[in-house]
Fold each of these.
Amino acid sequence: MNWEVFTRFSGPEIQLHWATVTIAFVAGLLQLLLSKGTPRHVWLGRLYAVMMIATSIAAFFIRSGEVSGLEYLSLKGMSWIHIFIPITLTAVPLGVLAARRGDIRSHKGHMIGSYIGAILIAGVFTFVPGRRMHLLFFADQETIERLETHCAENGC
């Protein structure tokens, strides 16, 4: 693994996004595997929901190119993968509200849907060559050195 991809070559928005989605991934996986309706399920569910909202907010600030100030209110620098932001910001609160109403079927659908869509499907696409997760796991030293040169010349 090339941890420099996140420690040296990624801004705080990417580091926050990675940390929160990693916690959400683990919490969500435990939710899928462990018994439902227990105090642990409620606690892990709250953790999952908060981490998914934080992940989405952090993802909003991950843009390509130069973006600053009010430009963040536009779509500038966003890619197709950003579609998971509004999906997550809708599905997770709806899932929480459904649980509070006692609508377990709707709760289950929203939460599993958010896990499959925003973590598993979006996560698979982060492993496309050139993206940070691909670099973290698969980049050779030469690629890391090129990234270092690029960041030194252009900023990261």
Note: The chain has a mean pLDDT of 90.
Amino acid sequence: MKTIFLAVFICLFQNSSCFLPPKFQWKVIDFTWANQSRKAAIDSGLYVAENNMPTGLARWREKVFVTIPRWKRGVPSSLNYIYVNGSQQQPLNPYPSWADAVLSDKDGGISSNSTVVSTFRVHADRCDRLWVVDNGVTDMSRKNCSDAFAYIPDMGSNAIIVYSLRTNEAWRVDHHYFHFDPHAGTYKVGGVHFYWSDGVSSVALSQTRKDGYRDLYFHPTSSTKQFKMSTKLLKNKNVPSEDIFNGVVVVGDRGANSQATACDFDHQSKILFYTQLCKNGVGCWNTEKLFTAENNPVIISDCNLLEFPNDVKVDQEGNIWILSNRQSRFLYESMDFDQVNFRILTAPVSAVVQGTPCERTTVFGKALSFVKRNKSGSKQSLTN
């Protein structure tokens, strides 16, 4: 049965068209209410259905966590979950509970120190912990879950915040590559034109290298370039600024209109996945290959199902998860709540990359890629 399932997906993803039916979809977001609390929340303004837009997701075991930032009034719960095997339009469950979700009044009063105020992205790590930040990834030893670091991009101030769980300290890292590219600030998504000057907004960690550190892949939202730097530079809060300045590598350019809001790294296939806003889809890059426009294909695309792909994640079972939310309409125009507006799609990674440049490289292919990399490096050094 599994073989047939994969074969079907391989056929469906030819030419990057998206015939994958949504795993979950909603016209408006609703929640699991107790008794008459839903009506009371509507009457008081604590719940305005049209003001709830999901922006982030993370799959953990039988749950899919979904975030809803409080960008508008009437969001009763910012951190929520649904069940993987639940219905397609199931209501969201506040996490960890309603008591930790609801603000004390419609003007945003905090009920207690444990109140979850406004979440944008969420990440479930290998140690079964849920990290809730505006955005970011976690880095930890497989043998010691307490020795963990979180890398949190702050696109508003063009910086990356590093947090050490062991020492409970945080520090700021700055670099001019964290800033947006003015030439990549214009967008058209869902028929809506807009301009963003968002800096670094998305990060992903590679597998552990021989030196014990990882590469942190990152990019500003308003940019088409991909960058990376070693976590060796980030984990040391006293590292000289000159080392930070010289330690960022320009991996390459994805090509025109390839701005991305989110990315994630699949450690099994060594593929970096990222959203493609202006193309209503998801792209990928096999990190064992050269970074070129040809090696960064759009593997899934659909102007309806994937209008404004906002987040992408790969779970520990090798499945890709994509959330689309028509955010440009939500922010700058109006949404038709008689139509489906929010979707979550999922498929095996092996199926979506089958037959694309992101497919796993053979032994011969790896050798050829190594030769090409060396030639490319030699040419670059000669021209510098």
Note: The chain has one domain: 2-29+137-383.
